[in-house]
Structures are given as structure tokens and as C-alpha cells.
């Protein structure tokens, strides 16, 4: 992960010399009825950015796919998008995994229309605490611990983060403890499954 | 098929987290937490209400009306016409098996879990 420069997602570099003649001529279309179109607002991107964006897009696709699967209990989801995060973590490091994961949360919430709603903050808190857990878990000796371990630890971190937010912000009710075993069991099962899938992808390629 | 992808340490994590799930299930699902309140008036069951949503219930007795409040999975007798107010001062009931009795007004609230546990009075 290169440290230099601000990422494209937040920098609006004004460049004319990106050498995309086609798009430039299209923007400067004389027939355009938009007064004074600005052709030079182009984002300067690196291959790294493209890669992050591609991975986040795959994760988004998995999130969408997962939305189609009916769930017995709101909140019990397989978290398929985390497979992407796990693969990125091993291949490209923790910082890229943070980018992919957070982009997925923000873009996903825009896509589903729940940006800044409680559901969004639940996703965000779960993602943040999972990433924190992964920042420790990835230092486990690789000889014995693989993506399956990362996945399970992150899944448990995810539910503990979400339950904390739910308890202290949304539903301060002791009855929440009743649901904890369900969420913990789901975290265990889906954590193992996602870990195995990620390990399989990493081994095949 | 799956086994080559699980390393030795992964098995350790799987075992530990399975243990955690079992521990959570055993501690949280053994009926220690009460599910519902049984309200009795004059020795007969007046109503059985779940603790899952907050409400207040007025129960008539020989002396007047007792008010029972349910809030945050707890129950208490909020007001009662009894002279010494023992049951009101007992406060919130939370665990299965706890009971508040207003003898003069013949009203009682008992919390029960998923299965009834034995106590020293009844075995």
C-alpha cells in the first residue's frame, strides 16, 4: 500500500493531461447546451485506486446478493462481502482492507438508501471493530492461523460492536441478552464458512 | 473438502469460539431471566403478560385498584391501596421466581421464566 498522496476518492485533482482524448472531446461537444462545461475536473487515479474500487465493487455485489437471501432474524446475515475483505487483507495488507471495507459500507448504504440511518451506523460500527480486530489478528503466526481464524475473530468482533451500539443507543433493554446466543452462533457458523471460502480463493490463485 | 483450508490454529479458534457460544447459550437461555409476569387477584390468575413490552395494568381487589407497571423486562407494583405498602416498596422484580404480594388487596405479581424452578416452599 503506497502512502504517498491523497487518495482519488477524496482528491479532486484538476488535470488536463490525462491523455483521454475521446472523453475530452466528448465533454467539449459544441452542441452541448450546458453553459461553460468544465472538461478539466478529472480525478487522478492510480492502479492502486482502481484495484481498491474493483474490490469494493465485488464486495458491493456480494452485499446486494446477500440482500436477496431471506433471513430468519433481522441482523443475522452471512456477511459474504467480508470474504473480499479477508482476501484483500492477506494479499494487499490491512490499509487496503480498511479502504475496501469502508467503501463498501458507505457505497452500500447509498445504494440501499439507508445512509445515516441506524442500519448504516450498525454496519459502520461492525466494520470498524472488525477491522480493529483484524489489525491484531493478522499478526498471528501464519503457519498456524489462516483466514478461518481471521474470519471468526472478525465475526465475533462485529457482533459485539453492533450489540454495544444497539444496547447503548437503540434498545437499552436487558432482553437483548436473549438474542446474543443466536447472533454468536451465526457469527461462528458464517465466520467459519466465509473463512474457508476466502482460504480457498487464496490457495487457488 | 474443507479440511485443507483449516489450519491447526484455526481449529483452536473454532473450538474456543464454539465453547463461547455454548457458554452464552447456557447462561442466557436457562430461564434465569424472566419471560412473563403472572398477575393474581383473589387467588385466581388475573392475567399473564409478557415482559417484552412496557405497559401498566390495573388490577381490582377488595380494597381498590392496584397498578402494576412493566418496564424494561422488569415488573413492579406501582401503587396499591394496602395500608403498609410492603409490595410497593419491594420495587422492581427482574429474576424468574421473584414475587411481590399485596396481601390486603389480594393481588400478587410473580415473574416466571421459560420453565418453573423449585423453591423452598414448593418442591
Descriptive account of the structure:
The complex is a heterodimer of chains A (205) and B (123). Chain A folds into two domains: 1-45, no CATH class; 47-204, Arp2/3 complex 21 kDa subunit ARPC3 (Orthogonal Bundle). Chain A has helices at 21-27, 47-67, 81-92, 94-112, 118-137, 147-170, 180-204. Helix content of chain A is 62%, strand content 0%. Chain A is built from seven helices and no strands. Chain B starts with 7 loop residues before the first helix and ends in an 11-residue tail after the last strand. Chain B has two domains: 1-30; 36-112, N-utilization substance G protein NusG, insert domain (mini-chromosome maintenance (MCM) complex, domain 2, Sandwich). Chain B has helices at residues 8-28, 86-89, and strands spanning 36-41, 44-50, 55-60, 65-71, 74-79, 99-102, 107-112. The model of chain B has no long low-confidence stretch (mean pLDDT 85). Helix content of chain B is 20%, strand content 34%. A four-stranded antiparallel β-sheet of chain B has the order 2-1-7-6. The chains are: A mainly alpha (205), B alpha+beta (123). The A-B interface holds A 140-141, 143-149, 152-153, 156, 172-175, 177-178, 180-181, 184-185, 187-188, 191-192, 195-196, 199-200, 203 and B 2, 4-10, 12-14, 17-18, 20-21, 24-25, 28-29, 33, 51-52, 72-73, 94.
Tally of DSSP β-strands of chain A:
0
Taking pLDDT < 50 over at least 5 consecutive residues as the criterion, the unreliable ranges of chain B are none
Task: Give the tally of structural domains of chain A.
Answer: 2
One letter per element, helices H and strands E, the order of chain A comes to HHHHHHH
Quantity of strands of chain B, as a count: 7
User: Roughly what percent helix of chain B?
Assistant: 10-25%
The chain-level structural class of chain B is alpha+beta
Task: Give the overall form of chain A.
Answer: globular
**Total count of helical runs of at least 4 residues of chain B:** 2
CATH structural architecture of the largest domain in chain A: Orthogonal Bundle
User: For this structure, what is the CATH class of the largest domain in chain A?
Assistant: Mainly Alpha
The shape of chain B, in one word, is: rod-shaped
| The CATH top-level class label of the largest domain in chain B | Mainly Beta
Indicate the proportion of strand residues of chain A: under 5%
* pLDDT averaged over residues of chain B: 85
